[in-house]
Amino acid sequence: xxxxxxxxxxxxxxxxxxxxxxxxxxxxxxxxxxxxxxxxxxxxxxxxxxxxxxxxxxxxxxxxxxxxxxxxxxxxxxxxxxxxxxxxxxxxxxxxxxxxxxxxxxxxxxxxxxxxxxxxxxxxxxxxxxxxxxxxxxxxxxxxxxxxxxxxxxxxxxxxxxxxxxxxxxxxxxxxxxxxxxxxxxxxxxxxxxxxxxxxxxxxxxxxxxxxxxxxxxxxxxxxxxxxxxxxxxxxxxxxxxxxxxxxxxxxxxxxxxxxxxxxxxxxxxxxxxxxxxxxxxxxxxxxxxxxxxxxxxxxxxxxxxxxxxxxxxxxxxxxxx
Length: 322
Ligand code: TXA
Ligand code: MG
Fold this sequence. Notes:
With 322 residues, the chain is α/β, with parallel strands linked by helices. Helix content is 31%, strand content 19%. α1 packs across α6. The longest helix is centred in the last third of the chain and has 16 residues. Bound molecules: threonylcarbamoyladenylate and magnesium ion (MG).
């Protein structure tokens, strides 16, 4: 695997790898993506292989210009114009009816395609130079923590991909918010880096698609995801009591007010700011994974703004350890 820097020459090298059907991990403002040519089905298949990802899960196509959206999708709902004007580029993915040129492997056979324009100069330049929409899930092994710096990518996927571009730490830190836009409705499929409040200020009330027990694997709706490789539980008095003889690492919001001997403590945002907390979220979980502890106790945060994206990821991380 080549380690590339965030300069013109290296981004051009990365674009050549994408054009040739290879895999390049690259920074975005949310998390690192594992990119391949989104219109080349063989290249996209390599993403599933590298991530060990179940093939029912479709991929987001990343674009560098708003005009590119029309080349891969079409949407009759006028609300899309408001969303694109206000939030592209940014941490928002739109699921809309696809155009014919989008391969089935990208959409997992659905008639819709997920599209996002990342707000990161390196990602935009890479897509522009590659001259194709770039398919990119988060650059982690399926089910594990999402990567928010280049080293996280190297640790999980170093021997399975062609290159990684090091663009430093991601400033948003959680994945994009996903909306599905139908002719007359808007559904939230995943909480993420853009808050529901900001979206509703722009397009009015949206509907939240809850996890469907009958379709447990439907896109964006997995109950389990993003898990660290040591047990994680959402912190309650009962959890602390049950685990008082263990080495517990704490992921806390802004201060430590617990009467408990934690083995290590990470504070997401000493200022109590959800943006800062989201930006630190995965990075601190990666650190706790390596802290030689028995389990992580993660403090719940208030479910407003980006607090919802954080709680969504904590519940999914906890699921297999409950
Ligand atoms: O911030 C992000 O969105 C990052 C960066 C790299 O852009 N990407 C990311 O991709 O989180 P991924 O593959 O880890 O998550 C994409 C989600 C999946 O849950 C997938 O099921 C859903 O988007 N999705 C993709 N295409 C869809 C479609 N046509 N309909 C419904 N959901 C879709
Ligand atoms: Mg992911």
